[in-house]
Write a structure and sequence with these properties.
The chain is mainly alpha-helical. The chain is built from four helices and no strands.
């Protein structure tokens, strides 16, 4: 189960990184929605709130506001991935 979450988070993180390069607002909306679901399921309320904010900002294409939360979103996503990998490694799975 953790492996599936990690894979999904890594794919979402990669997709968000690509979407910010445009920025591709449709891809930002789609992937922020996935991040909302994943972070909510795992119980990371801070990341979930950040992803909800990203989704709202991607509805109204304002590049400056999106760039303001880019770093924090990517960092918190990476942190969650690392935390899950640590749990997985300590469980020996």
């Amino acid at each position: 189960m953790i492996t599936a979450f990690v894979n999904d988070l890594q794919m979402t993180q990669a997709n968000l990184a690509l979407a910010w390069n445009g920025p591709d607002f449709a891809a930002l909306r789609t992937n922020s929605h996935v991040l909302i679901a994943l972070s909510g399921t795992i119980g990371d309320r801070d990341l979930q709130a950040l992803a909800q904010n990203l989704n709202a900002l991607a509805q109204t294409p304002n590049v400056a506001d999106l760039l303001d939360i880019r770093s924090e979103t990517m960092t918190k996503t990476a942190d969650l991935i690392e935390e899950l990998l640590g749990i997985q490694n300590s469980a020996g799975t």
